[in-house]
Amino acid sequence: MVYLLILIFLIVCIIFLFTFKKIYIRTSTMAMVMAFGIVTQGVLLNYFGIQFFQHIFGKILCIMNLSLWFAFILSLLRASLDGRFKDIHYSNVINRFGIGTWVAGTSISGILFYKQFSNWGVIFVIISFINIVLWSIYIGISVKTFIEISRTKSYQNVHGILLLTTVSTQSIVLLLNTVFREFPVIFNLALLITGICFYLVCVFFILSRYIKNSWSIEIDWNNTNCILHGALSISGVACIITGVISIDIIRWIWRAALIIFIAVEAIELYRLFRRVKQYGFRDAIFVYDVTQWSRVFTFAMFYTFTALFHTHLLIGSFVIDTILKLGVWVVIILLMIELMLSLGDAIKTYKQSYREMGKENELSSPYFKS
């Protein structure tokens, strides 16, 4: 009950903050909720065990994540009421796919709410049905956008954000099988296949961009491309949770995720080297972008997939032991770095808006002289 009161208090504070400040989040900002959620519910839970969430630290992390989710939902509603929704979230063709973070973020928040406040059954059932509607709208928008990109042959700007179609679909599988437990096999299978089909379509679009167009690794390789392995990992986790896919197929999904993980992160390391050489250490690394949360999410998802399935992998124990023992600290370090960068960016943005507000007040003052 105490933790529920803390959550309610934080939500009330957030309502006042977002009401008076009129804060509008970027479309993919919900990736922060996705990252926090899978780190707490996937990485930390599997590494420290269920007792982690019985202590105050684990519960506070869950409450913070739920508060962030509510804050971002409130910002989206604010943008709608102020008539800015279309300009911020829909006008840019590629940016539309970022709406998938809303679905996945809501799924992980629904799961966390279920785990922490199991007596409030009506709430997560409502969240589940709302999320199904949101996912359906998002898939409709995504299919329309895929057709638009294909018809105009405008592959030059596509990147890993497209794979949120797969991530959002599989997150719905995880949410429904957590909340309703015995979810019909036919629906599970249909959603899993839908997610995999979206993955194949997205890979085709992304490869078309990098094969058919000239590009620079420093500028044109996007942070979101790491979702290439993250989308496979969440698909594997969804297969495990539902139990409708054979162990052999899941094993091949994990192997594919590992190979793509190594390939993508090797490209990322080379990109990092080139960016440091071109822009310098500070501007190449310590610059915040909301898409960087996708890296935290995908690393955490691959760790979770490995932790849930390691007894069935039948590969060298050294690889598995390394992932399970060191991977958790890699994810935590990435999360800490991203938190510091995002906090620094928030402070910088606030100071800038405060200075601009001061200038406006000065210009409007009757004592101001030009």
Report on this model:
It is a single chain. The chain is mainly alpha-helical and 370 residues long. The protein has a domain at 92-320: Voltage-dependent anion channel (Glycosyltransferase, Alpha/alpha barrel), CATH 1.50.10.150. 77% of the residues lie in helices and 0% in strands. It is built from 14 helices and no strands. It has helices at 2-21, 31-48, 56-81, 85-90, 100-116, 121-152, 164-179, 185-212, 217-220, 227-242, 247-279, 281-285, 293-309, 317-364. The longest helix has 48 residues, at 317-364. It is globular, with a radius of gyration of 21 Å. The model is unreliable at 363-370 (pLDDT under 50).
In a nutshell, what does this entry contain?
The protein is an all-alpha fold and 370 residues long.
- The CATH topology of the domain at 92-320 corresponds to Glycosyltransferase
The structure class reads: mainly alpha
Q: Give the DSSP E fraction (strand runs of 2 or more residues).
A: under 5%
First and last CA, distance: 59 Å
Note the total helix count: 14
Features:
mainly alpha; 0% strand; 370 residues; disordered C terminus; Glycosyltransferase
Set out the fold topology.
Elements: H1 2-21, H2 31-48, H3 56-81, H4 85-90, H5 100-116, H6 121-152, H7 164-179, H8 185-212, H9 217-220, H10 227-242, H11 247-279, H12 281-285, H13 293-309, H14 317-364
Helix pairs in contact: 1-3, 2-3, 2-5, 2-13, 2-14, 3-5, 5-6, 5-7, 6-7, 7-8, 7-10, 8-10, 10-11, 10-13, 11-13, 13-14
